[in-house]
Amino acid sequence: MEKYVEIKRWDNQEVIHSGYFNSIKECLEDGVKKGISFYRADLSNTNLENAYLYKSRLEDANLGYANLENANLENANLENANLENANLENANLENANLENANLWGCKGNNKEIKNIDIFEEYKVVYTKDILQIGCQGHPIEEWEVFSDEVIFKMDGQKGLDFWHKNKEFIFNKIKKDPAL
């Protein structure tokens, strides 16, 4: 049954797209089809499973805790998007722009976004360029040269102990199983 649905910006509550739809997912797909930019859209906690979001413009969007399982995000612009704890299992992220996206705790698609799910202390997620350990996301090449002082400033002795214990394993995993 259709109801009036609005998708708003998270920063100023301005309505980006609205209308009568069965779900937020349908409203979003309609807007994407029309070429609407969902810059800073608040899509947190939204069920977008199987959504068709090809070439969607989701820069700075809040997709935290969203279910994007099996979503088609091919060629989507997710620059600076918040994907914290989002579920991206089996999502198509081919050629998606993930520059500066917050990947903290997200479940990747095991292609463009991969998880190392063996640590209790921190969730570890990586792309071809970025390594996110807990809340800290940085280019992989920066992680490779971070000093103990820099790591300590991130999360104190706990972070430094984790890093000393797991650094070699993490880089070997990234090397043996790189993200696309």
Please sum up the structure shown.
Helices cover 25% and strands 15% of the residues.
Calculate Rg over CA atoms.
Answer: 17 Å
Using the coordinates above, name the CATH class: Mainly Beta
Quickly give the CATH architecture.
Answer: 3 Solenoid
Q: How are the strands ordered across the major sheet?
A: 3-4-5-6
The major beta sheet can be summarized as: 4 strands, antiparallel
**Total discrete domains:** 1
Helical proportion, percent range: 25-40%
Uncertain residue segments = none
- Which structural class should the secondary elements be placed in? alpha+beta
Q: Give the CA-CA distance, first to last residue.
A: 40 Å
Shape designation: elongated
CATH topology name, in short, is Pectate Lyase C-like
Number of β-strand runs: 6
Per DSSP, the total helix count is 3
The SSE string, one letter per element, is EEHEEEEHH
Descriptive report:
With 180 residues, this protein is an alpha+beta fold. 25% of the residues lie in helices and 15% in strands. The protein has three helices and six strands, in the order E-E-H-E-E-E-E-H-H. The chain is elongated.
Please supply descriptive tags for the structure shown above:
180 residues, alpha+beta, Pectate Lyase C-like, 6 strands, 25% helix, elongated
Task: List the SSEs and their pairings.
Blueprint: E1 3-8, E2 15-21, H1 24-33, E3 114-116, E4 124-126, E5 130-133, E6 136-139, H2 140-145, H3 148-176
Antiparallel strand pairs: 1-2, 3-4, 4-5, 5-6
